[in-house]
Amino acid sequence: MVPYPVPVAAWSSLPTLASAFILAGLGIAATLNSPSGKVLATVWDGADPDYSLLDERDATLHQRRGVEELLSAFTKGQLTRHYWGHFAPTLADLGLTADASLGVQVENSKGVSRLWLTPRRGAEAYLAQVSFNGEKLERLHCRGTAGSDVEPQADQCPVGWTTFSQLNP
After folding, report:
1. Of 98, 92, 94, 96, nearest to 67 (Cα)?
2. Terminal-residue alpha carbon distance, the chain
């Protein structure tokens, strides 16, 4: 007796099915071993350090924007107050308030007024300085690393700090 013949069409689809299974297996293996698969695993665990780094950078940039606005308002206010005879001794005298996340210190000495801002989060600190050199008012904004031994100089940022956001007259 002759065995039942298998149609030719069924034999021709066998390589297609085999290749589909092989490709599916390779895809699953690649997904499990790829960096994106590892990222998914860490996101599900909630322990991805890259996201916390991004959050920290975002918070720092947001903080800088707020600080720059406060430094600018302080500088403009002190320029105006000096025109009327003297520098204001506090932020409140200028009609300004600082965010609760900032440590604030206003210093006034002969011809110089400084605003020190030290955020409670992060290592950056900020300085706005308005000074009268006998002929004209000068202004300076600085950013640097907070530390106890920071000494400002007349028309310069403390050593290791950088100047930023200079106001135009």
Report:
1. 98
2. 107
Element (H, E) at 76: helix 49-83
CB neighbour class for 87 (10 Å; exposed up to 12, middle 13-18, buried from 19): buried
Round to whole Å and give the CA distance between 129 and 137: 10
| Cβ atoms 51, 42 nearer than 8 A | no
Cβ 114 vs Cβ 152: under 8 Å: yes
- pLDDT of 85-133, one tens digit each? 889 999 999 999 988 888 999 999 888 999 999 988 778 899 999 998 8
What letter would DSSP give residue 103? Answer: E
pLDDT in tens, 140-155: 999 998 776 777 776 7
